[in-house]
Structure formats: structure tokens, C-alpha cells
Amino acid sequence: MVVTMHFQNPRLVQYFVRNFSLWSMKKDPYLESALSKNRRWIVNNQIKNIILRCPDQVATVRFIQKKFKTLDLQGKALNWLKKYPCCFQVYLQGDEYYCQLTKRMMGLVEEEESVKDMQEPVFVERLAKLLMMSSNKRLNVVKLNELKRNLGFPDDYLIRLVPKYSDMFQIVNYSGRRSSMEIELVSWNPDLAVSAIEASAHNQGTEPCFTCSLPSTWVKSWERFHEFNATPYISPYLDSKGLVEGSKEMEKRMVGLVHELLSLTLWKKASIAKLGHFQREFVLPEKLNVLLLKHPGIFYVSNKYQIYTVLLREGYNEQGLVDKDPLVVVKEKFGELMQEGLHEYNRRRHLVNLEKKKKKGMVLGRPNEGKDRSSEMSDPDDQGDRGGLFDPEERKRFYKILPNCVFNKKDPIVLGVDVLEGIAKVGTPICIPQRDFITIGRIASIENNHKPVDIAKKGLRVAIKIVGANSDEQQRMFGRHFEIEDERVSHISRRSIDILKANCRDELSIDEWNLVVKLTFRDTMSEADAILEQHSSSNAICGEWRGSKSSSSSLFHEVHVSSLSKSNIEIFMANQLSCIFFKTLLGWQVKLGKELKIDSEEASEMSRKASYPLFC
């Protein structure tokens, strides 16, 4: 049965929004980056644990392949393992592939185990503090297992800690069900009943109180925080039976309890859903999210990856965690080793590809050039965006519509195209140069042989879906605003070209830079005509491009300039046209075979005054 409710009263709507939705909190870039997950790190850590549980710590690749479904992975496990040669050693024995951890990886595993042995008293204190904060001084094992990663507990903490410290803990099962097994506190230790806030206040010689980590511009939030902090601090280790539900004292204790829970974790953060499982044990409110969002100076709530997570603000600064647990340091070393292995894999793969190209007789760079530019290029699929020309906002591409491959004429426009030059990438804005560079939208998806891909390189025949980002782009239509013979080009600003030239010129191959120059010149010629038209100049520049491939020689023959006067040059300098445009008009006068109305000395002088290098 489906029930639809309509509210005419705006107060009722506001009530339901407040009580049945998780409010949003203003995003903090530093804390959001702290929440960033490294998917590769999580998967490799699970593979590491699988190998360690195998006999002799050696697993067959076939066995790991079976576990790929539980790791939410697709593809071949062998290919994945070979991407991280610093972490996993794969070898062939008979007809079977085997995998074991490398010596460096085993060294990190041993270091992690030694840290856990040294941290055993800390684990005991954390477990005791959790039990002391609970209402019945016992916690369900199944629920506690959900937080053991956050707390840094080893997988065998029940076997390792409980029997060894029988004077503090014991395993009980009062209901007799398997899922009802609990850890119970045997003896109360008053030395441990000290919260992180109380310990910090004792060291500073002040009264225990919360700290606020908000900017000074958040005036209202600061006022609410000072009002909340004015009441005495209530320790989360005190019994809550004497407190009235809904009172300020009860709220103070609940905020202090969540603060203490997050202080005990390794990364000073936890999932709100996991904390909600302990609602009865820790006497937490039913709507825990409402409590947390009322105190933005103490907690930070984020919905990154569609998982609501709460962070302790005072535990982080612009560099990340303020105090790193020794276990966190070891885990970061594992991430660095994994990244090093990925770079090594990419380097080997690149060298193999170069050898294949050499055998096929492909030209890899300029003739008689000592250093091969293409050897400096790496695979963007594995190393991510390098910025500059390889960023979807920075790179120019050509796409040509295939006949009888227009699947949808209106937004979203679906076309079959040939990638003539550059690469096609999801998120690229597309414009039509033959139609005054009108923008028709961005590439939302790419399909190659009915399979979704993120990138389509030069020479591929793919289907792309273009989605308009605003009302104007959504009204673009095939047949009205562009035709099948029109070329589609990714939109790029002149500022991006200047950034490319200043920072990434040495990283681009000859063909890539010629592609940038060719399209930039064509775009700037139309802008120059518009500027001259505004100044009512009689000497217009006729920029006409003929369809030919991008090469260093053909560029000089594709543009025809009728005339260029000294006054026009001054107009261009006043409007700050691009450096590439000046270079083309003044530096190629001999190549073009046209007589300009100014000589080279005047051109150099004007270039110096305008701070534009003509021959760069």
C-alpha cells in the first residue's frame, strides 16, 4: 500500500523535515579530505588478511579469485595482484599461480603485530572504558565487532585480551542465544574513569569544558556553544539514572559520551549508524544525528560516499590527524608501499608498450632528438589526471558524427562519433566551432562496443551521451543547431592555454601542442574580428581554416590574413589577446607570405610594451 501525504501548513512541513531527515552541515574541505577512502588500500588490506590466514601464508590466485565477489571486485585477480609488485609476489608453479606477500610487506605485517603487542595495555584500557560508560557495564560482542576496526582491536581480541585479563573482563551469555554473547566488566577501576576532556583540563590546570573549532565568523554557532558550555561538564562515566531525559544535563552527558567514544577511536571518527546500535547501552537519543548537528563546533557530520559519519573537530587540523596512533602510522606505511608498487607497475607497463611501438616502427618523437618526449607520458588510466592538457577542462578534442548514428536528437543527445584527435573523456564540455562555438553540453557517458568507458582515445568509434548543464544547452538540438558534417570540439578557455604553455609545455608531444595551437588560433581569430568590429576598424582579419590534419607545416598554410595595421595591434594589446595569437600574426609573417603594415622592429617594441613574447 502506498500512502501520499500533502501538507498545506508550512509548519508541518518544517516539522517533518527536521524530524525525519538528516540535516546538512556546511562542508569543511580539510575534514572532507580526511574522510576520503582509498578503495585500493581497503581491497589490498583484505587480500593481505586472506593470504595470512592461508597455510604457510601462500594462497593460490584461483582461491583469491573466488574471494573477489566478496571484495566487490570484477576482472582477473592475477591482473590486480600484478599491479602491486611491492606488496604481492606472484609466481607460477606447475600449472598453478601462487601469491605470497613480499619481504617488505611481511616486514610491515611484523611491525604491525609488534605495535599491537606494545599497544595491548591501551586496548585493555579502551575496552574497559567502553564497558564503564555502558549502562549495564556489559556490551554485546556482535555490536562491538562493528567498532573493533575503529578502536584498533586485533581480530582475536576476545581470545587475546579477555582470558589474560580475567580480573577485569568476562564472557557472559544470560539468554543462551549465540548472538547474545556479551563482555562484562568484572571490576571498576576509578583511575580509568577519566575522560579525555577531564585529562586535558587537569594537565592545563583548568575546569573541564568542551572546545570549539569553528571560524570566528560563525557568530550564532559560537553564541550557542558558549551558552551550552556555560553549564558544568558531566562525565560520561557517571551514572545517568539520576538525570532527567530531555534536560540540559542529560544533553551535556550525551555530548560528552559521544566525544569520549570518538576520542577512543584511531581516526577520531565513526559511522553514525554504528554508534546508533549502542543506543540502549550508552543511553543515546533515538535521533543521534539531531544531537550531533546541534553542536557543529564539537562534531562534524558528513554524508560522503552516502555514509553518515561524525568526526571530532578538535582531532583534526589542516594537515590531518593532530595525534596519530602508532597503528595509524603503520597503516600509512602500507598505503605508501602500495602506491610505490603501483608506480613500479605503471613504469614496467610503459616500457613494454614502448618496445611494442618500436617493433611496429612507430615514430615516438622528433627526429634527431636525444630525449623521447613520449617516454615521459604515463598511462592516465592508472595514475589519474595529471592536470594540464589531460584534464577534462583543459584538453581539446575533435569528434565527427557517424552517418545513421544519431540515436537521440534532443537533450540528452546520443551520437555515434569518431574521435579524430585527442581523447574523449566523461565530463568534457562540447562546442561547435562552425556555429560560433556554441556549447551543447557535457559528455555524460561513453560506450565502446556496448560497454561503458571513461576515456576514448584517437581513432576509436564510440557512442557518447551529451547532457546540457543549463536551460540554453538543454534546448540544443541536432538538425537545428548543428549538422552531421559539423565537428564537435571540447570547449577550452584561453586562460587554460596560457597555463598549459607556462607549466606543461615540456610534457606535451608535438602533435598535442600543434592541436592546442591550431584550435586556439581559430578561436582567437573570431574574437579578434569581434574586437575590431567594436572599434569600427576597417582592416578586419579574415581567419579561414581549411580542413586538414594537424601538423607543424600545415598550420602555416591554413590561415589567410588580409591586412593588419599598427592601430589594430594596439587595439589587440588593449584587449589583451592571447600570446599565441600575437605570435601567429607577427611571428609567421614570412611563412604566410603577407606584408604587414608594421615592420619587425615595431612589432618587437609593441610586444615588449604589452609584455607578450612574440617568439616563445
UniProtKB/TrEMBL annotation:
Residues 362-391 are annotated as: Disordered. Residues 26-342 form the PORR domain. One of its GO terms (biological process) is translation. InterPro entries: EFTU-type, PORR_domain, PORR_fam, Transl_B-barrel_sf. Residues 400-469 form the Elongation factor Tu-type domain. One of its GO terms (molecular function) is RNA binding. It comes from the Eukaryota. Pfam families: GTP_EFTU_D4 (PF14578), PORR (PF11955). This is Uncharacterized protein. It comes from Prunus armeniaca.
